[in-house]
Backbone:
């Protein structure tokens, strides 16, 4: 999964004609997949191989912080990609103005900055909680819900803050994505030729696939109170997000994108 995402990143960054906003967003998503996998799987492999199922408190908070921050970054980037597709299909003549490479980089940097700054407060609040009961985490990594469940302190403020921010962030980005695709579908249906409709909508299929998988797993994980926490179910959905999504994303990007396939074949031919 890391090799696949690294291939996507290297391929796009070393192919001049792929340095467009859509592919820059794909680079960002691949970096998130690499970082998310690297944040969790190495420690998990060490635990499996050595049977030393321990992690320091600082290491646990750090792992939780990066996992949730990367998740929030992906939420924002997927919304930015929806806006990019909306401009490309509904306002193609103004695409260079509204979605230049500078605007794309600005949206990408904003997504990373907002997510990591916002979650730093959560990490500080959680690190100040008391964990006076069992220190055994019923999960394969330090997940936010699992840590709150373990604490013997009052976590209602953190839960409320997490739920409000998560709901606001999720609703805004989800609505932006839905509204963008309503306009996209409307514009595509107005195209007279079936070939033109297919070509226009094919540029959105990879993004739609990623959005569906991402929101399906994230909503199942976080859009509910801690009282309904189910270790087995949470571990299943977390596994889908941590392992399956980074594995599937490069396949979606490459198999659904002719430009990436052509660039890959050209690189292989050169090698």
Residues:
């Amino acid at each position: 999964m890391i090799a696949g995402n690294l291939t996507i990143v290297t391929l796009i960054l070393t192919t001049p004609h792929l340095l467009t906003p859509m592919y820059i967003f794909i680079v960002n998503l691949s970096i998130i997949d690499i970082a998310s996998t690297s944040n969790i799987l190495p420690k998990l492999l060490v635990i499996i191989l050595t049977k030393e199922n321990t992690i320091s408190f600082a290491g646990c908070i750090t792992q939780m912080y990066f996992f949730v921050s990367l998740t929030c970054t992906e939420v924002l980037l997927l919304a930015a990609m929806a806006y990019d597709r909306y401009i490309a299909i509904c306002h193609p003549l103004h695409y260079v103005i509204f979605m230049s490479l500078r605007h794309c980089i600005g949206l990408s940097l904003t997504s990373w900055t907002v997510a990591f700054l916002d979650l730093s407060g959560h990490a500080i609040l959680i690190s100040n909680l008391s964990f006076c009961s069992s220190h055994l985490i019923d999960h394969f990594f330090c997940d936010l819900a699992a840590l709150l469940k373990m604490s013997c302190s009052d976590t209602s403020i953190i839960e409320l803050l997490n739920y409000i921010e998560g709901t606001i962030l999720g609703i805004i980005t989800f609505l932006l994505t839905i509204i963008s695709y309503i306009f996209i579908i409307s514009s595509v249906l107005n195209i007279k030729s079936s070939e033109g409709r297919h070509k226009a909508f094919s540029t959105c299929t990879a993004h739609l696939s990623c959005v569906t998988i991402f929101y399906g797993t994230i909503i199942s994980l976080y859009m509910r109170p801690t009282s309904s926490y189910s270790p087995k179910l949470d571990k299943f959905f977390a596994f889908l997000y941590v392992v399956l999504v980074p594995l599937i994303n490069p396949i979606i990007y490459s198999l659904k994108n002719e430009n990436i396939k052509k660039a890959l074949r050209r690189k292989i031919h050169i090698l």
Residues 2-270 form a domain with the Rhopdopsin 7-helix transmembrane proteins fold (CATH 1.20.1070.10). The chain has a mean pLDDT of 82. The chain is about 80% helix and 0% strand. Residues 37 and 242 are 6 Å apart (CA to CA).
